[in-house]
Predict the structure of Xanthine dehydrogenase.
Amino acid sequence: MDTEPKFFETNPTAGLVGQPLTRIDGRAKVTGAAKYSAEYNNLPGLVHAVLKTSDVAKGRITGFDISAAQKQPGVLAILTHQNIPKLAKTPNDDAGKKAIGAPMGFLPLTGDQIFYAGQPVAIVVADTLERAQYAAALLKVQVQVEKPLASYEDPKAKLFDPEKIQDGKADGHTRRGDAQAAFAAAPVQLTHTYIHAINHHNPMEPGATTAHWEAPDRLTVYESTQGVTRTQKSLSTMLGLSAEQVRVVTKYLGGGFGCKGASWPHTVLTVQAAKAVGRPVKLALTRPQMFTSMGHREDQQQTLKIGATKDGKLTALIHEKTSTTSPWDNYAESNSKIINLLYECPTFEATYQLARADVMTSTFMRAPGEAPGSFAIECSMDDLAEKLGIDPLEIRLRNYAEKDPSTGQQWSSKSLRQCYARGAELFGWSKRNPKAGATRDGKLLVGWGMATASYPVHNSQGTARARLYADGHAVVQSGATDLGTGTYTVMTQVAADGLGLPMEKIRFELGDTRLPTAPNSGGSVAAGTVSSSVYMAVQDVWQKLIKVAVLDKKSPLYRAKIADVEAKAGRLQLKTNPNKGEGFADVMKRADLSDIEGNGQGRYGSGYEDAQAAANADPSKKDEVGHHSMHSFGAHFCEVKVDPELGTVRVTRWVSVHAAGRILNAKTARSQIIGGSIFGIGCALMEATVRDQNLARYTNSNLADYHIPTNADIPEMTVEFIDEHDPYINAMGVKGIGEISMVGVSAAVANAVAHATGRRVRSLPITPDKVL
Ligand code: MOS
């Protein structure tokens, strides 16, 4: 039997883009050949570092007793704030924060203050991992302990009103029309408060750094990050080096979900440790350390007021969010953005309140803002439907936004109606019993729920290089990251498709600052920006080669006009007469070109260039150009069965239909939506990090006590995409699907639970105690 993965299942020269090809890195991953950032074990003299972290959340270090630790065999260095090599800049002041660029929070080992439990207080280096761990255990830290504040829920927490929340997406305040007056005048009013537990990302691969000083001023870092360029910038700035002196490599990533989107202290601490011992140093965070080292989704509470007419049309939306932040930043997910644009509503108001607590900073986590924001709006929409006796899908259609309500802009494309219709058909939504708590399967209560999803196409730029060889292979490069979801595969498809070569003749390289710059793989920008960069690089190859052909007396294209020649399936030919032309290899061989290189830039909104050209031809369309709101949309449908005696909830059926522009690979895209939906089901039913309110420490910082779904918790899932052509967003028309996959999921589950039981739970996760 043929057990080789078949990643070449289609006609190699026609229509590779979109094909459901198996991941080309799959074999390397399952055989262990794929090298992750903590697996560069052949570096000369590689040694191991571990972090010693603080057990207390607040206090001051008064001294260290390093005598026992230092005496252990193999110990090379015990670095604390007293002896660690100094940095040129740290994020601990505003100027440093600004220069470093990447969000990072506070850098420890810079002073004697302890700001959060889990804060590194020392980094211990030894010749083996076990010796470093043992020495760290023997290291004694004397601390003057103070009473910490654990969250906004503590009555002693002072709430403040940030002018700007620090996630780059929303202001602290948004107002559109007079929402207060509209709410007061609304015939139907709903006010509900939603609570969201702390969530941690928990990628399979923890944060990990291998730091190698190849010369006193030349550093290579193998880093588990979603962005090598962002890491390069933060490290070079802190070290006082030029970007060129710092190389960052990330060939494989075992998941990220946003926690690897920023820069975090363990990375630069490892680099400093390598400097101190003069040898390459490797550090991998432990699972418990993952709960205090790379951010989390913050504990938060949202109050949403909805004003509506008696026939269910929205007239007012007022959103207030309160969440916990760290002692040194103003981070909050911008939940209000999605609430402001999901439905047509003439008035809107949003405010944010923060409380400082003695905790590690929160950060981006899959669909930051959109995921919890959609929980509030999508539960409240169902409440409105229930109150007025309208079907949940129908109430959403009645409020369908034909333009972006938050800006008044036209959508670049929106296929949400098709998502609703196809999802409802696949799920059998029309057979839903309108009465809650009235459908049973034996003793189990059965509930059906649905929710809308949306995610923006974020502004993003990137570059790529394609080198085509006369012997019929190509190397294509972009310094992007593959989070594990298929970047290697889809970029190979785009390149192979454009070059007219089989998949196996393309080598796509990523994850290295020596390659052309690509954006951070975050905010769902990688698929669209990098594929557009690759596409443009391939077009550049053809343009250069066409110029060679038309000057070559031996070419059938000699003296043809450049604009009259096209490249199709690896052949240069006349547009008007495809028979007149030749293969690229013939042109290259005669010109003695062993290879030819093209460069491309993928740009957000670059589809506008075509649109602008069209508008120039049709002046009546002029106003449409340059004024589009770009978003993907989707809908989730969920069936749950609830045990009325135990309060347990099982998701028994799932349908997701999304419209996200061009889908580059139907198989990896489906996997991405399945993964995001499971992520959301975990958030809805299981995931919660519990912070002790007295000690400000997590009580369940491990994967035994922090519950995530297993295979047995998840049913067969049905995923479909609506074919959508968007001419505005980028050259490939790709919107991205990493984040939208979990938007609305927790609401769909909560709505199904409410339908099953007749009781609305507004606090995530929906655990049995809340259902009973
Ligand atoms: Mo995504 S939370 O921007 O990695």
